[in-house]
Specification:
With 166 residues, the chain is mostly helical. It has 5 helices and no strands. The radius of gyration is 20 Å and the shape is elongated.
């Protein structure tokens, strides 16, 4: 398989994946509006700010990834045509770095954060703390699901890069 085509396809899948962050960010923002307009109870009102923050964070991540990967697609052809061997090496290094980050952050740190937020729901009685914890769990699950898919793609991409390099 052509390395340029492989890299471009991977980046396009990443662009598609980043749209899920944008989608979920918008859902969190819509939930904020719902809690703000329709929330009558103390717990419903407590969800306004946590869902707003979560929505902004996820939306920011999605837009940032969308921009980064769209820009990356545009530079692939130029980088590959400049020095194909260096392009493959840099992509392998970048993929390995990303896999290491996923291994640490997505598969270790985020589950620990989910556990901590769940414990906060149990031990804190105030509505704001329960809303923050519940919203945090929802946001972290979204990140976990989307990044789990992204991790599978980067592992596959890395394996294909290694096989092409040989």
């Amino acid at each position: 398989m052509d390395i340029l085509k492989l890299a471009t396809e991977w980046a396009k899948y990443e662009v598609f994946s980043s749209k899920f962050f944008i989608f979920f960010g918008i859902l969190f923002l819509l939930a904020t509006i719902g809690f703000w307009q329709l929330g009558k109870t103390e717990i419903a009102k407590a969800f306004v700010y946590p869902t707003l923050v979560a929505g902004i964070l996820i939306l920011t991540v999605g837009v940032g990834l969308l921009y980064a990967n769209t820009t990356r697609i545009k530079t692939f052809t130029e980088d590959y045509n400049t020095d194909a061997s260096a392009f493959v090496k840099s992509e392998i290094v970048r993929a390995e770095k990303s896999m290491g980050e996923y291994k640490l952050i997505v598969f270790k740190v985020i589950p620990i954060m989910i556990i901590i937020a769940a414990l906060c729901i149990i031990f804190f009685d105030k509505p704001i703390w329960r809303a923050i914890s519940t919203t945090s769990i929802a946001m972290l699950v979204v990140i976990l699901l989307v990044d789990n898919n992204a991790n599978a793609r980067i592992v596959n991409y890395h394996q294909q890069l290694i096989s092409i390099k040989k």
